[in-house]
Structure formats: C-alpha cells, structure tokens
Amino acid sequence: KHKKGDLSDLKVIRTEAGYDYVPGWGKADEIFEGDEEKSIDLYDCEIFYVDHCLAQVVNTLEDLGILDDTLIIVTSDHGEQLGQHGLYGHAGLHEAVIKIPLIIRYPPKIPKGIRVKEYAQQVDIVPTILDLAGVKVDYQFDGESLLKLINGGKIREYAVSETWGERAIIDGEWKLIVHYPKELERPGPVLKGILSLTKKKGKLGFELYNIRKDPAEVINLVDNEQTVLNDLLSKLNEWIKAHLKPGEKDPMEELDRYYMPQPLEYQKL
After folding, report:
1. Which residues are within 8 A (CB) of 126 and not within 5 positions of it... i.e. 6 or more apart?
2. What is the Cα–Cα distance from 230 to 228, expressed in whole angstroms?
3. Residue 234 host element (H or E)
4. Are residues 116 and 104 in contact, defined by beta-carbon separation less than 8 angstroms?
5. Could you give the domains of the chain?
6. What pLDDT score does 3 carry?
7. How do 72-75 and 102-105 pair as beta strands?
8. Which of 86, 99, 112, 208 is deepest in the core (most CB within 10 A)?
9. Please, are residues 90 and 269 in contact by the beta-carbon 8 Å criterion?
10. pLDDT at residue 161, rounded to an integer
11. Helix (H) or strand (E) holding 239
C-alpha cells in the first residue's frame, strides 16, 4: 500500500472480491428484473466513486507541483447496457456500449475547454500520447494523433466498431449494425436481447438507426431507408477490404477459428 502523495513504484494489485462496494456475482438481468432504475443508480454510484479517485490523483499531482506537466487521459474500454434492448453488460454495439468518454488534459499543448465533435477512437490514443510527448516512431499505427482534431482537422469520415459477430458503422446521423451469420445462429437468450430488433436480409441481419432522432436506438429503419442502407454497406465493405491482406478472408466469415464466448449465457452476465 502507498501513502498519500507517494507515486513511486506503483503496482496494480488484484484482490479477491469482498469489499462492501463489490456485490456478489449473479446475472444482472435476474438481479434487476423489474427494477432497471436500481441498476442505473448503482452504476451512477460507481461513476461517483471513480470521479472521487480521479480527484485524489489530480490533487496529488497538484501537491507535487507536476499537475500541468502531466498528461491526463480519462476514457473507458466500453460502456454498459443497463436494461436497454433487454440487455445488461457490454453486449453488442449500441451507443450505450461504444460511445465512451475521452477527456485529455495537457496544458502545454491542449487549450482549455475545447470540445471536439469529430470521430475519435481508441486506436488514436497511443499516437496522440507519442505526438504530445514529441516522440517520433517508424511505425504505422491504425489510428492517428487526435491533435489533428484539436487543431480543426479531420481523421476519418466515419467510424467503425467491431465485436464477435457484429460490425457497426456510424456516419453522421446514421448508424448501421451488421450481424453476421454465425451470430444469427446463436440460440437462446441472446436472440431475445441483442437480436430482438434485427431484421434479416439474406444471410445478414441489420439494425439501421437515425441516432440523432432516435438516440436510444429503438426504431429500426432498414425497411424504410434502402438508399442509406446501401451507402453504409458500401462504405463498410470498403473499410473491410482496406484492412485485409491480399487473399485474406474476412474473420467474420471464419468465426469458428476464433474464441467464442459461452453461447447461451455470456450476453446475460
């Protein structure tokens, strides 16, 4: 354990559950069935706790006199479904899961109070850190430095997210989620949740939302917006081809070769 103000030799220590703020394990949809607001309240408490911990870090840096010389990045690996679409946890590619915070503080190079509306993704974080640190590397990253956005530029025209059996493309007010055959074949509770709004066309399943008018993603417009569907599919296919080596197959077509979560219960945890 470290004393307050001591940042030397920090280690991440994993301990067994048992603290009073760690609940017992269980399936969230069973624990909170009929009481979704309770799950949201508990999640708000977790956010408050994290905010408290961040304040301790910031205050310590300030006490040490190095706050303004320290790059601080606050983000997350994913969001959470808290009953939306009948799901709990980080299942699927709805906005509740993939739209996450990204806060960067570094006074020497980033002006205070800037809010960027362009697309930023996690692959951009490492290039951004190196750029801010003035480190030049002979390596081609998948992402780019976010300083381009801070200075008014643009990195990408649209954003793509992936998970097992799904891809999503977001372009302006439109968002398309594509469900691939192997996921559509998964039985049981998954179909009641993550695929409940999916409309199948051929071998694929689709969810098409206007996320500006329908931020909760509950009105699937696949049957009403064929032109938008075709445009987003074309852009997504271009993105896929650009990320494959010559002769390489799309991994979504060979999912049996990759790790598959527990098919019946995974999406309910």
Report:
1. 141, 143
2. 5
3. helix 226-242
4. no
5. 158-258 (3.30.1120.10)
6. 56
7. antiparallel
8. 208
9. no
10. 94
11. helix 226-242
**Taking the CB of residue 227, how many other CB atoms lie within 10 A of it?**
7
| Backbone CA torsion sign across 6, 12, 18, 19 | positive
pLDDT per position in the chain (269 positions), as tens? Answer: 445 555 554 454 445 554 444 445 555 556 566 677 887 888 899 999 999 999 999 999 999 999 999 999 999 989 988 878 877 778 789 999 999 999 999 999 999 999 998 999 999 999 999 999 999 999 889 899 999 998 888 899 999 999 888 999 999 999 999 998 877 776 555 556 667 788 888 889 999 999 999 999 999 999 999 999 999 999 999 999 998 888 888 888 876 655 444 433 333 43
Residue 89 φ/ψ, nearest 5 degrees: 90, -165
State the sign of the Cα–Cα–Cα–Cα dihedral 117, 120, 126, 130. Answer: negative
Tokens 């280690």 appear where? Answer: 11
Closest by CA to 116, choosing from 65, 173, 70, 156, is: 156
Q: With 0.85 as the threshold, say if the pTM is over it.
A: no
- Residues 6+ positions from 194 with CB-CB distance below 8 Å: 85, 87, 91, 92, 267
117 burial type by CB count under 10 A (0-12 exposed, 13-18 middle, 19+ buried): exposed
- Residue 249 main-chain phi, psi, to 5 deg: -85, 155
Report how many helices (DSSP H) and strands (DSSP E) the chain contains, helices first: 8, 9
And the tokens for 213? 């008018």
Q: Are 93 and 104 in contact (CB under 8 A)?
A: no
- Chain-centre distance of CA 197, in angstroms? 20
End-to-end C-alpha distance for the chain, whole angstroms: 32
179 DSSP β-pair partners = 166, 205
